[in-house]
Amino acid sequence: MKSTRPMQGLKRMLLISIGGLLALVVLIFLAWSGLAQHGNAAAADMLLRLDHRSPALASKNVILLAIDDETVSRYGPLPIDRALLAEALKRVATAKPSVLVVDMLLSERTTPTADASLAGALSRFPTVVLATALEIPTHDKQSEWLKPLPEFESRALALGHVHIEPDPDGVTRTLLLAKSNSDQRYWALGFEAFRARMGVQSSLIESANAVQAGTYRVPARTFNDRLLWIHYAGPEGTFQHVNVASVLDHRAQLSIFSGKIVILGVTALGAGDRIFTPFSTGLGMSGIEIHANIFNTLATGAYLIPLSPMAELFSVFAIAALIAAAVWWRQGRFLIPIAITGVFLIPVLSYVLFRRGVIVPAASWIVVQIGASLIAFLVHTLFVRRRLLEAIVGKQDYAFRLQAVAHEIRTPLTAIHASSQLITDVDVPECKKEEIAERIHRESGRLAGVMTAFLDVERIAAGVLKLKRQQIDLAQVAADAADRAALLAQKRNIAIKQDLDPVTVPADGELLQFAIYNLLVNAIKFSPESSSVHITLRSDKKSARLSVIDEGCGIEPVEQKHIFERFYRARQHNGAQPGSGVGLALVKEIVTQHGGSVEVASEPGKGSSFIVLLPREVTE
Ligand code: ADP
Questions:
Q1: Cβ distance 36 to 346 under 8 Å?
Q2: 317-358 tens-digit pLDDT
Q3: Given CA atoms 364, 367, 369, 375 in this order, what sign does their dihedral have?
Q4: What spacing in Å lies between the alpha carbon of 554 and ligand 1's midpoint?
């Protein structure tokens, strides 16, 4: 049935939209998943490696004093004899470096003389920062801090923890600025080195979002245990290296240590102290290089701050919403440009924001962007398909109607054609010519009528014929329509009986009169001679109810469904009665545009009632 088609269409579109939205939600969860998080980390690594400024950011103030493979092979094995280390440090101390950072756990005793000489060497540095770490916990014992021997600790300004916090993929991107067990907390070695160097050892103010050391604000938030992204300056070797062997061999130029921060530690591959970083090749990075990078991040203030989880979620939703909106906006015209632009824009935006120190979930964004675009295309295609099908059906409908109109036009046109030929014939008597002229007049009038009806129904359906609404006296309008139909009724000896209660409705009087007239003409047309047609008007608070009731042939139930369709004519009448099959379609269109409805109740052989309901107030 015609009237249910838009409903079905609406339902289907609603289902498609809901399906699309559900798919979007799944997608957003996918963007939240571990896989996407790996992707986000990988994207951040790539941006870090792309960031050409980084090596330039590497502090020239840091020198790594490495116990490297050469040192181990010449002075090894590990651990290197503390007396030898002490000797090297004494030499370095002569160059007056500003801070000595020792990335070695000096918690165990070796020989008394070696330990004493190392303690002596440490005391030659103005500022010393030593390493500490939590021992590996056992099931019966809580892990404790492995601290340097007292003779070393007494010479240190601070102890810093040397724990690393690798991500699930084994890459170390962040550090815990502070680490604690139940009774003590230590700041990271790199942070302690920074504080020592900047002379802000004493003052430390902690807030939820940052740790303030003097005038330096470190944006490490409590919500993620004061995790700080390390802005790696580059791969291994970015910071200046000097090995212990070259110092012991007098090969090193000691003046390069002057005023610098010296970070001492093991880099020898055999030590196994290698950590994977975004810059790592297969070997990983040495601990001291990582501490240098941590110090460097703090010293340059080039912090990398990830979006907060809320902002991340919001951004992912915003992308999904933008693409969902693109399906609707201007009928999806911008869907493809938006989808493609997004794919290119995300990496660019990620890079720009990275340069400003913001780490974005680029992989999640891309997943949502591409996934949402695909869903959007699917939804859009389904919509377009639906519209196309509707257009095809509409076109078929239209072609059918045109055919019907052509058929209606052909009959009068044939009559006019034949008559016009006759009229020029001199043999035809004058009185006959008058009759012919009369026929031409009648048939051309019918022709004009069919055309007007066709155009009217098209215009009303297209909403071109605008209603000229005003408060009208519906009883008067109905009475006028009855007057117009009276002549036709008289011809067939049919009585039009009026029972009209006064009621006003906001309506276009002319169109309504036309509609009522059509109902009356049908009632007369399809009634036997000498019967009656009743027109009644009743009203309540909300609506007016106008009925046109006849005692005619009635309409078969199967036909009743179709009689309001354009150009539909009940089979039994097709050909028997003149008509175009648009009358009721027009009535329905007019009544619907007024916010009302029209219904038929009919029993074949007994008669029909057409009931028009009109609202008494404008409803749209
Ligand atoms: P037309 O009257 O020009 O054929 P309509 O759209 O007015 O076109 O009516 C469509 C069809 O509905 C008619 O052909 C007829 O079969 C049926 N119909 C309309 N009104 C009545 C009626 N009062 N009694 C019986 N049949 C009717």
A1: no
A2: 899 889 888 888 888 888 889 989 998 999 999 999 999 999
A3: negative
A4: 9
